[in-house]
Specification:
The complex is a heterodimer of chains A (237) and B (291).
Chain A (H helix, E strand, L loop, with lengths): L3 E12 L2 E12 L3 E5 L6 H8 L7 E6 L2 E2 L5 H6 L2 E4 L11 H8 L7 H11 L1 H5 L10 H14 L4 E5 L7 H16 L3 E6 L2 H7 L2 E6 L2 E7 H6 L1 H8 L3
Parallel strand pairs in A: 3-8, 3-9, 6-7, 7-8
Antiparallel strand pairs in A: 1-2, 1-4, 4-5, 9-10
Chain B lengths: L1 H27 L6 H19 L3 H24 L8 H24 L15 E4 L2 E4 H23 L1 H11 L1 H6 L4 H27 L6 H16 L4 H21 L5 H15 L14
Helix pairs in contact in B: 1-5, 1-8, 1-9, 1-10, 2-3, 2-4, 2-8, 2-9, 3-4, 3-8, 5-6, 5-8, 6-8, 9-10, 9-11, 10-11
The chains are: A alpha/beta (237), B mainly alpha (291).
């Protein structure tokens, strides 16, 4: 077993008096795809924001590539290869598609142009619309842009927050195809999803969160057939 | 024709003052009410550089640009950054920047005394030029050219450069910018610096135009600057440019044809009618924040 690239230890995230994350620990092996699933309000987004340096955790530690990065600011983490595809995509709608991609490479000035070219080859649709305001894209196109934008930063670990949210089933299929490609290119993926069945099918390992704590964990294939998980989170197909 | 030119000279200075003012508002959603103190301070320091050290205007203006920028960094650091993340940061920033501006002015008065300061009489060429029956000085031409060069430069920088892209990202959604790895604090500080650098140069140009500087010069342009950016559309750079020219022209024509006591009535009457007819300003979008 290789050393994990990302380790989260006893993470607590609180907003005022409310603890959204109450002592969560998990880890991701380099190159693996792990998923955090659970209902709304289980603390999934707070966990990702704390890892990404966007929210300061009350306690606990985040180790990335063997180093404690708990207090490292967000822009430094992006420079170091820990990159997030945020919930709700957060496309900059008044900027063009190309400018969004350029912003994705804010910290990688030397490789930015080459990365953007790669993204245009990989997502020809974005190349066609490069000069359009990103706000003019459809929801699915915006999600592809959000993913491409994060990839311009050449992530070692990619944190993906609800990438299938609000998308038509066909588009969701495409998003998961892209996630599989990212994973097979060697990037470690931490996937947060409400669509638990879909996420577990894509993942190697899964954590089921419940009110800010890990309720179950295991190989994704086992969780998919675990009666407790099936009953509470997956339902009948 | 003469009045038209005078209006353009005055208006270009208003525009330069206002474009910096509106930049901070457009990118950061904050009004920096110490902007006018930078305007006054830069005028005094500019006169000092010329009078005491005999520097030419082409050396003085870049120095003032840097000086104004440094004051902007101080303002951001002292009056705005400590408030970051507070739910009342908006209002608190107004108050703290008023306070810091007042301190700048007090320092200015302590350093230079309360009297009106002037450039030495022979510091600039007094050559007169004529254009379509109107007379103006070389100096006035310099004022207009410098003001417009800086405004066009700023507009290009915001629309084309990497920093400009960062500013527009922060303007639209600071959280999204942070997610992408933009150092939001740094972009914020640079936005302030750029804003007050232009405000500082505007102060020197204003002093050149009327050949004098007073401590109170900032407070009178501050209200006009607010009028300008509201007329042009809050946060809009071309709006500030056009608004500045409009207010400058309105003032000059009011003085000529109605009487000098009507000057502010016309300027603020313009503001009032714009607010009635087009509340978002000439270039204002429906959303409040854009640049």
């Amino acid at each position: 077993m290789s050393t994990p690239i990302l380790v989260v230890e006893d993470l607590v995230v609180a907003y005022g008096q409310v603890e959204a994350v109450r002592g969560v620990s998990f880890h991701a092996e380099a190159g693996a795809l792990i998923t955090l699933v659970g209902a709304n309000g289980a603390g999934k987004t707070s966990i990702l924001n704390a890892i990404a340096g966007l929210v300061r955790p009350r306690s606990g530690r985040v180790l990335y590539a063997g180093k404690d990065v708990t207090r490292r600011p967000a822009h430094r983490l992006v420079a170091d290869g820990l990159v997030q595809v945020p919930e709700g995509r957060l496309i900059l709608g008044t900027l063009t598609v190309e400018e969004n991609l350029q912003l994705g490479g804010w910290q990688q000035r030397s490789t930015q142009a080459a990365s953007i070219k790669e993204m245009y080859e990989r997502f020809p649709l974005l190349a066609q619309r490069r000069a359009l305001p990103a706000g003019a894209l459809s929801g699915g196109e915006q999600q592809m842009l959000a993913i491409a934008r994060a990839l311009v930063a050449r992530p070692t670990v990619l944190l993906m927050d609800e990438p299938s949210m609000g998308l038509a089933p066909k588009v969701v299929d495409e998003v998961f195809r892209v996630i599989a490609q990212i994973r097979s290119s060697g990037t470690t993926v931490v996937l947060v999803e409400q669509n638990a069945r879909r996420a577990l099918r894509a993942a190697d390992y899964g954590y089921v969160l419940e009110t800010g704590q890990v309720a179950h964990e295991g190989a994704a294939s086992e969780l998919l057939t675990d009666p407790r998980v099936v009953e509470a989170y997956l339902g009948l197909e | 024709m003469q009045q038209l030119l005078n209006g353009i000279f005055l208006g270009s200075i208003y525009a330069l003052f206002a474009i910096g003012f509106t930049l901070v508002f457009g990118v950061l959603d904050r009004l920096n009410l110490a902007h006018s103190a930078v305007f006054s301070a830069s005028a005094f320091v500019g006169i000092e550089l010329v009078a005491r050290f005999g520097l030419s205007i082409w050396v003085t203006l870049p120095i003032i640009f840097v000086f104004g920028g440094l004051l902007g960094l101080v303002i951001e650091r002292v009056a705005f950054r400590p408030l970051k993340g507070r739910h009342d940061a908006h209002f608190a920033g107004l108050i703290s920047s008023i306070a810091l501006g007042a301190m700048f002015l007090a320092l200015l008065q302590a350093g230079f005394g309360p009297d009106t300061r002037r450039f030495p009489p022979d510091a600039f060429p007094q050559q007169r030029l004529e254009f379509a029956g109107a007379v103006f000085s070389v100096l006035q031409l310099v004022i207009v050219v410098v003001a417009f060069a800086l405004m066009v430069g700023l507009t290009l920088m915001v629309s084309r450069s990497r920093l400009g892209r960062g500013m527009r990202a922060v303007a639209e959604n600071p959280h999204a910018a942070a997610v992408l790895g933009v150092d939001v604090d740094r972009v914020t500080a640079l936005t302030f610096a750029l804003s007050t650098a232009l405000g500082g140069v505007a102060g020197v140009l204003f002093a050149l135009n009327v050949n004098s500087a007073q401590i109170s010069m900032g407070s009178s342009i501050e209200l006009k600057g607010l009028a300008v950016i509201i007329v042009g559309g809050l946060g809009s750079l071309p709006g500030a440019m056009l608004g500045g020219l409009l207010v400058g022209l309105a003032e000059v024509f009011a003085v000529t044809y109605v009487g000098s006591s009507w000057r502010d009535v016309i300027a603020f009457g313009l503001l009032f009618s714009i607010l009635l007819l087009r509340p978002q300003g000439i270039f204002g979008a429906r959303q409040v924040r854009e640049i």
